[in-house]
Design brief:
InterPro entries: C1-like_sf, CH_dom, CH_dom_sf, DBL_dom_sf, DH_dom, PKC_DAG/PE, SH2, SH2_dom_sf. GO terms for molecular function: guanyl-nucleotide exchange factor activity; metal ion binding. Keywords: Metal-binding, SH2 domain, Zinc. The chain has five domains: 114 residues, Calponin-like domain (Actin-binding Protein, T-fimbrin, domain 1, Orthogonal Bundle); 205 residues, Dbl homology (DH) domain (Dbl Homology Domain, Chain A, Up-down Bundle), CATH 1.20.900.10; 129 residues, no CATH class; 45 residues, Wheat Germ Agglutinin (Isolectin 2), domain 1, CATH 3.30.60; 114 residues, SH2 domain (SHC Adaptor Protein). The longest helix has 43 residues. The chain has a six-stranded mixed sheet with strand order 12-13-14-15-16-17. The C terminus is likely disordered. It has 22 helices and 17 strands. The protein is globular and about 90 Å long. A hairpin with a 7-residue loop joins β6 and β7. With 692 residues, it is of the alpha+beta class. α1 packs across α6, α2 crosses α6 and α10 packs antiparallel against α11.
């Protein structure tokens, strides 16, 4: 993390009373922009800096939260900038533009502008005139031509100028947006079919092959989205946002298989079809001209917007479902907790579907790249030309790499490597006794570059030498032992063995605790036994235990192997609490996942998780709320052992985490100990069953 970003985050945590989790993943100004993109934290910051004169509750004409109906909080950011200019008499050039934050155009300018704003803390301009309303802010949405790939591509339904600011009204608005988004996509897909029909006419210059690739999935997309629209309309018929939320999760589970079946085929073909269409436009400009004439004929949006709309639809769903979930949690007083949980289910399932579709798209792109790489290798065994066999291959064969002219000079000194996200193809010259290069030999290895953030570095002047740079862990160097003493065949064999050890990529402890994990390539669509996510990557590689038959991805395996048996509390025998604390600290849980687990348990349930270099106690208290308290740690001066406490001001320290848990099972935390926490009496085994 850069010093400027860290300094700014520290100030924000203090001003907004955020805990250590806030912004812990931010290392650059771009990460900071993504953190603040929705605008809510920015507006709350403005309220603090103005000494409360600009309130998050609004002044009758403005509400921060009601403005979240625009994409990525655009109105929130524009409101924030206008208030800074008015309240603190700042110049617009001293701040930043909304696009600098939302589209990451100039993230460094955002950080500079915010630091200038923080320097004005306590010096607001007491203006007597009334603050301008949202309607008076000169807001103009981005035009269709200037929108980027990451922007929403749908237009919102018309809403009254003075939008209601209550969560109940926001629920109604978001439900209306979801239904409007779906109806708009159905209209666009119907229009695409009209384009298809006209382009198949006798006067069209589009070839049948180009038409088939361009409109291959349009009809199937229209059918599945018409069905989805019917389901959404049936939920909206009751005119009750609470009823819509209550049934959204089960309805999306019903629609998800159909969406997955269509989009799993559409996502891999979409980039290829679009690239083919653009290539045809360059070779035959009259094809694009014909589309422009049809746009005028149908009085429609540009063909590009119509054609790209299905590719962004799942992302739009996720954004709207997440907003609906956040608003539903604020409105628990009028809607049931079941409704909020139903919306959360829709959010989770939408994320999983989007993740799966993105992997399918990346699989298609990497498959084409890998085929091209394999075609460039001479002497490659026939069975290795089949992609389904490449993932399991170890470097036991020799073949010759076809090198480009610009690389022939380099091959005399360096390794020649071809990389995909899951494969490493290494070709290097075999050194003779006098050091001169002979015919190159090469090997293929399934090194997990994707999971471990490995970068390749070739060392000049060392034939047969190779370095793999692992992020944060220095260099892992492989060199062919005895290159000048052993024959080329023997040297190649030893070097292969070294690479195979690294290619196994097994974390420490893979064969401990009665387990024996090995790395394998699973069938497409296989899921991790722990997180239930589909295996990612080109060859769907993960880890399988020969004893318990679990199949885990890299993240879950690492977390699984970290669970070591803990020592029992000092001065007493093992009790039921200590025996359950062996999974007490969960390194792989973030704040959101902890809250999701606690929300499904009873009040008083808690768990401990790692947050950076600190431990955090996450507790559920009342309804669905969760509080996060940092566990203080120190080293005892007398014994030199580690001690833990959530109440250091009263001098209560414990020799182990087990003792801390045991103490607070029978000694209630009071509001004087930790602000906002009144009860901590239960350690429910049901929380840990989620990790078994």
């Amino acid at each position: 993390m850069s010093a400027s970003v860290g300094e700014f985050l520290q100030q924000i945590r203090q001003l907004l009373n955020k805990d250590a989790d806030f912004g812990q993943q931010c290392s650059t100004s771009e990460d900071l922009c993504r953190l603040l993109a929705d605008g809510e934290d920015l507006c709350c910051l403005l309220s603090v800096l103005s000494n409360g004169r600009i309130s998050p509750e609004g002044d009758g004409t403005v509400s921060f939260y009601s403005m979240n109906s625009e994409m990525f909080g655009r109105r929130n950011v524009k409101f924030f900038l206008s208030k800074c200019v008015h309240e603190f008499q700042m110049k617009r050039e001293d701040l930043f533009e909304a696009e600098d934050l939302l589209l990451l155009r100039r993230p460094d300018r955002v950080l500079t502008g915010l630091r200038r704003l923080l320097s004005l803390q306590g010096l607001p301009n007491p203006a007597n005139e009334r603050m301008p309303s949202v309607a008076s802010l000169d807001y103009q949405p981005l035009s269709c031509a200037s929108r980027r790939q990451s922007d929403f591509i749908y237009s919102e339904p018309e809403t009254p100028a003075a939008a209601a600011s209550t969560p109940a009204a926001q629920l109604e608005n978001i439900v209306s947006e979801i239904c409007h988004l779906q109806a708009q996509l159905v209209d666009r897909l119907s229009l695409l079919l009209k384009f298809h029909g006209e382009l198949r006419g006798p006067l069209s210059e589009w070839s049948s092959d180009l038409l088939d690739s361009t409109f291959k999935h349009t009809e199937h997309l229209l059918q599945v989205h018409e069905y989805f629209k019917q389901q959404l309309d049936s939920l909206a018929e009751s005119k009750s946002a609470a009823n819509f939320c209550t049934n959204l999760g089960s309805m999306f589970l019903q629609v998800k298989p159909r969406l997955s079946a269509v989009y799993s085929k559409y996502y891999p073909d979409y980039p290829l079809a679009k690239a083919k269409m653009e290539e045809a436009f360059q070779q035959q400009p009259q094809l694009r001209r014909q589309l422009e004439l049809l746009e005028r004929h149908f009085n429609a949006e540009s063909f590009s917007i119509l054609y790209d709309s299905p590719s962004k639809q799942m992302f739009n769903y996720q954004i709207l479902f997440e907003r609906l979930h956040r608003t539903a949690e604020k409105e628990l007083a009028t809607i049931s907790e079941q409704a909020a949980n139903s919306v959360e289910l829709a959010v989770v399932e939408c994320r999983r579907l989007l993740s799966h579709l993105n992997e399918r798209k990346r699989y298609s792109e990497q498959e084409a790249a890998t085929r091209q790489i394999l075609q460039s290798i001479e002497g490659l065994p026939e069975h290795l030309t089949k992609l389904e066999n490449v993932g399991l291959h170890r470097g036991d064969g020799q073949f010759r790499a076809t090198l480009g002219k610009e690389q022939r000079a380099l091959v005399q000194k360096e390794c020649f490597c071809l990389l995909t996200d899951r494969q490493l193809i290494v070709a290097t010259p075999a050194a003779s006794s006098n050091g001169s290069s002979q015919q190159p030999w090469a090997f293929l290895f399934d090194v997990s570059l994707y999971e471990n953030d490995l970068q390749l570095e070739c060392r000049a002047g060392e034939p047969g030498g190779l370095q793999l740079k692992q992020s944060g862990k220095g260099l892992v160097q492989f060199s062919r032992p005895g290159a000048k003493k052993l024959s080329a065949g023997v040297g190649a064999s030893l070097w292969t063995q070294l690479l195979e050890v690294r290619a196994a990529n097994l974390p420490d402890g893979w064969n401990s605790g009665g387990h024996r994990f090995r790395r394998v390539t699973f069938e497409e669509g296989s899921e991790c036994s722990r997180c239930r996510e589909t295996f990612a990557g080109l060859y769907f590689q993960g880890y399988h235990c020969d004893h318990c038959n679990q199949q885990l991805d890299r993240t879950c395996l690492t977390a699984f192997l970290r669970h070591r048996p803990v020592s029992y509390p000092l001065g007493g025998p093992a009790d039921s609490v200590a025996s359950r604390c062996q999974q007490l600290v969960h390194d792989h849980l973030d704040r959101w996942s902890a809250e999701r687990l606690l929300r499904r348990s009873q009040p008083g349930a808690f768990l401990i998780r790692q947050s950076g270099e600190k431990l955090v106690l996450s507790i559920r208290w009342q309804r669905a709320e969760a509080y996060h308290v940092i566990i203080q740690q120190r080293v005892s001066g007398s014994t030199g052992s580690q001690q833990y406490s959530v109440d250091p001001k009263n001098g209560i320290w414990h020799q182990s985490l087990e003792r801390l848990v045991t103490h607070h099972r029978t000694n209630t935390l009071t509001i004087e100990n930790v602000t906002g926490i009144c009860l901590l009496e239960l350690l429910l085994p049901s929380i840990y069953e989620n990790f078994n």
